[in-house]
Amino acid sequence: xxxxxxxRAALVTAAALATTVTATVGISAAGTEKDSKxxxxxIAALFVGWNAALQTxxxxxxxxxxxxxxxxxxxxxxxxxxxxxGIEDYFEHFLQxxxxxxxxxTIINVLGKNSAIDTGSYVFTLTDPKTGEKRxxxxxxxxxxxxxxxxxxIVNHHSSAMPEG
Length: 165
Description:
This protein is an alpha+beta fold. The chain contains 4 helices and 5 strands. The longest helix has 33 residues.
């Protein structure tokens, strides 16, 4: 074997080894990310997405953010909603008030790589569809999220107006 041939063989071997190491590290890093817990910031962003869905005025877009077996205990209805049809029905009525939510206090607990709870208080500005008059509703909330099929969904949402005084 000539010196040039040995150098070429060494370079090919080194390149193959580097490619193998890079591929292994890439798979390992992707596996770590997939298996890691979400950050509190990532969970907080789920509310931002939900609130943006409200702004579309489309009850179906809001309902898509809920799991098929989700439970909704809504702010302005006494009826507990336990399926997509019931949740969508609630939002058909609620969205007529053009709700805009803003968190006033939030506590996020990441329970695992596929589960988290966001709880606290928020204020909703609602607009009367007949008069255009705005009013604020202060409420407590709990969103329980689960990652299913790679997508974060609401599995339990409880919202209740703050008690007076």
